[in-house]
């Protein structure tokens, strides 16, 4: 006698959500296919597929995460595969969630750090998705502040039998000493002022390495530090004030991990770090830093050619802080919007944003209190922004003037920024018909790029070389190519 196959249980959770969303089976299938295309997946689902899911069949691969994202967009709240009665998978959207609580935020970002510090090369190949910018930026803008981030120590109870009973929550690593050994930090250990000072110093160190040598030089070391040092602190014990400062440091270092990932062209991973940095900034109660993270996301969108999304991110950042931010921060926000308009070729909007940025910087005074993360934005940086915008608008004479001014004012420690500006100047000279000078400047930039681990630096040089194609037979261009070839 043959056994009858196990009967599947109808998926009532999915049925209820389909009804709430107002989808037809065919409509849901079509949306899943379209979302798959955003990730380079050629999916062929139809109404029959959805019928099978409703009868209890589990879709394969990353499809559960895609289905969950379709409902998230439709219903305006974050839904997981489990919420739909589907098996969890390694979703393409992992890391793009804007956590509901600080504890959940630590879980998400800690998972990213652990995967990234290991041999998970596929994490660095995840594609950037413009649609993944919508929910986090909206949730940051309209979300309520976290009322509490403090974590109290939970005592370890020793029963009569002598075996410790470990309650839920943070506990000391060594119950007999109530503290982890000094050389090793474990969950439950108290976070001190020295810990916070160390986090700031680590940020300064890795920022300096990134500026000088590119994101690829020390990115992995930074991620390992986050995994082995920062995550145990976040799972440690701390009061409210210390906790806010700890989350602020975590936001800053996570944004930096994203920035270095962006610089090596790991764009999907960088996007996820930026989203998590945004959530950590909310836990810190630091709206200004949240706006800076959004500006960072806007800059990545500009680099990848998503101008409309970049404009929206810059405007959300401005709306989120209003007029309360210091003038230098206001300058940074308006400059980011200008770059996005420049990419789109919107001359009037770009010019208006540049004027607002310039006026904001003029309003800054020497005694103003400026956040440490915004101190880089000075006259040299604003001139750099002007140069990029005028280049994108093909206003080459103005682009050359501002790029030259930026190079004159910019400190040598910002080596990669100087390289970018030198390529902007080379492009402007090329646009003005000054081929010899353009090639000379670009050759200098190519030499610098060869010394860095920066995909962006290499891409700036390649962009200039594409612009050289109409002049490929000219002597200066042949000379340029010889110099680049000699770099190996």
SSE arrangement, N to C? HHHHHHHHHHHHHHHHHHHH
Write down the Rg. Answer: 25 Å
What's the level 1 CATH class of the domain at 378-488? Mainly Alpha
Under the CATH scheme, the architecture of the domain at 378-488 is: Alpha Horseshoe
Sketch the major β-sheet: none
Helix fraction?
55-70%
DSSP, total strands: 0
- Give the CATH topology of the domain at 378-488: Serine Threonine Protein Phosphatase 5, Tetratricopeptide repeat
Low-confidence stretches: 1-6, 155-182
Distance between the amino and carboxyl termini = 73 Å
- The share of residues in extended strands comes to under 5%
The gross shape turns out to be: globular
Counted by DSSP, the helix tally is 20
Estimated structural class: mainly alpha
| Overall pLDDT | 89
